Structure formats: C-alpha cells, structure tokens
Amino acid sequence: HSYCQIRHNSTDLILHFSLYYSTLHHHSCESYCYATLSFRARPGIYKKYPLYIYNCRIVKYIIGNWKSNQSITQSLIWLDDLATLKPKITDQKKIILCLPFTDIAAFNQKSSELNLPIFCASQNVSHLPPGRHTGEINAAMLSELVSYCLVGHSERREIFSETSAMVASKCVLLLEHSITPIVCIDTPYLD
C-alpha cells in the first residue's frame, strides 16, 4: 500500500495505490493494481477516480545518476567498456542513467550503435515553459532526447531552493511532452 501527494498551486493531487501479485509459475506473475486518484476541486471537496489495472508486468528499474560528472568523451568510453562485458538485461529490468545534458545526444547515439538497452534520463528540466529563460532546458527540448527526467532531487531542493510547487510544475510539463518524471521523494521535502 502506498500513498503519494503532490501539491501544485492550490490543487492537491493524491494517489493511493496497492499492488497485489501472485506467482503463476516459476518465472512470471500476474498482478492486479488498484489506485484511487483524487484531486481537490475546491476547498474541502475532493473528486475521486478509481483506477484498475490488470495483468501488470512487474518491471524493476535500475536508475543511476551521474550528477555533475563525466564528460562526453568519458561517457562514450564507459559505454565501450560496458559493451565488452556483454551485460544480459532482461525485459523485467529497465536501466536508466541520468546524465548531464551535454552527454545525452552522444550517449544515445553510441548506446544505439552498441545495441545496449540503456535509457537516458535528464537530470533536470526547467519548471518554466519555452520562452525568454536564458540557459533553461525545457521539456519540449528534452522530448527529442529522453523518455525520462529526474525531478525533486534533494540536491536541487537544498542547493537551488526548489519547492514542491516547482517539482509539480516540472512533472506537468514533462508529462505534456510524453516524458516520464522520476520523482525523488525525501521525507524532509514532503511539504
């Protein structure tokens, strides 16, 4: 049983979900997921929508964050070294690396050439839409490069004073551009 609440401006988005699964045979499982999505329509009044998902495939995500490390050259050398190991990655595992923005395009091209099933994620996105925001990387720009983006990391919150409202704005913009947000949830920042 899990609970998640995201606040955006005056709107609360609340997701309650439970995941049940049973083993059918040694290597597979059938799962049933029930979720309730609630949002505050106005103060004191919540609308609830039940969500049912059947036969969910359980996928394990292995997510790495390179932080502010690795140049483009270092990233490409790392990929070459990984390819020599011939890793076996099954459909039940998804490997995602959160890279510095400068590395993403070259990394995508090289991992495709090496036929490595590794997905790139951006480490950040602007909470602002496209416009006059010098130096910002917006979700529309990222949509041609990544399918995932890290948001709400404790370092961004602590060092750059990002708020939950900013994280919620980032999530909305990412979803509008078909990018899956990877939301970091850290107890001190759950406001």
Summarize the entry for a quick read.
With 191 residues, this protein is an alpha/beta fold. 25% of the residues lie in helices and 38% in strands.
Task: Give a verbal description of the structure.
- Helix content is 25%, strand content 38%.
- With 191 residues, the chain is α/β, with parallel strands linked by helices.
- The strands form two sheets. Strands 5-6-7-8-9 form a five-stranded parallel beta sheet, covered by helices on one side. Strands 1-2-3-4 form a four-stranded antiparallel beta sheet, with helices on one face.
- Strand 3 and strand 4 form a beta hairpin.
- It is globular and about 45 Å long.
- It starts with a strand and ends in an 8-residue tail after the last strand.
- The relative contact order is 0.13.
**Shape, per Cα inertia axes:** globular
Radius of gyration based on Cα positions: 19 Å
* Sheet of most strands: 5 strands, parallel
Low-confidence spans: 1-42
Helix proportion range: 25-40%
How far is the first residue's CA from the last residue's CA?
21 Å
Total E-strand runs: 9
The helix/strand class is alpha/beta
Mean pLDDT: 76
Number of separate helices: 5
The run of helices and strands is EEEEEHEHEHEHHE
